[in-house]
Model the fold of this input.
Amino acid sequence: MNIAILDDYHGVAADYADWSALGPQANVRVFREPLPEAERANALQPFDVIVIMRERMPFPAALVNALPNLRLLVTTGLRNNAVDMAACKARGVTVCGAPGASNAVNATAELAWTLILGLFKNLCTEDANMRRGSWQTGMPVPLARKRLGVLGLGKLGQAVARVGKAFDMDVVAWSPNLTPERAQEGGATYVSKQDLFATSDVVSVHLILSDRTRNVVDAECLRAMKSSAFLVNTSRAGLVDQDALMDALRHKRIAGAGLDVFSVEPLPADDPVRKLDNVVLTPHLGYVSEDNFRAFYANAVAAIQAWADGKPIREL
Done:
């Protein structure tokens, strides 16, 4: 049984789970660097089982059909919009999920607040200026009595809202299915989408990407924002119209953005967003923690073992 583990950027997959539990017939190969699209089919030809990190490398029909030996695809998490499930089903490829740690929500909410605080306190610029010998080059903005707009009030959004309340912020929320009653239960006041963008001092995005929510933050939303407001996205790049966001940032129509997710990941070295001075950038760290990755890989081993025993678990 030939097993490939893809996109192990940190080089921890081998240490974070006991792959030897799969027996001597299991040959495991770890790919640390992202495979270029043109090389994927050839590189993955030998493998019966492929373990992928959720939404790092897509598995469209063309790739699935180019891998005649593939019999099991294991993805971290319990859904993966980057896998063509219909193509897998047609080919007879089993797809199983490998859930992460129970505290993963907290890690993402913490990163959202890292970005929010970095923006309000001008942290990255002040750090860079201090290293150049400067002193007090910007005016930090207090959070108290500012308005936090939470776009999506699920578990993540609620975790972010609770911290906003602790900072004495006015917390409001909107999502396509949110009601005033559910917003109140989640620790926020329900407002319309227009009001959320027009009145918030920072908008934090916490929606699941789907056909319905793609580009839910469009040019109109960005035009409605105050020139002093920030946008923070730790969810998915596809929720925001990227061209409209870049335009708003370049022309300083909003004060800045905190971004952990990008249309292409890893973010190309020459991507223009890297050159903007009003953004705080992190490399999709929201779900990255030792607890989460240990759970991912341990559950991937369990999924492979169960499938090898003829009793697949967590089939998607």
Q: What stands out?
A: Residues 1 and 25 are 6 Å apart (CA to CA). The chain has a mean pLDDT of 97.
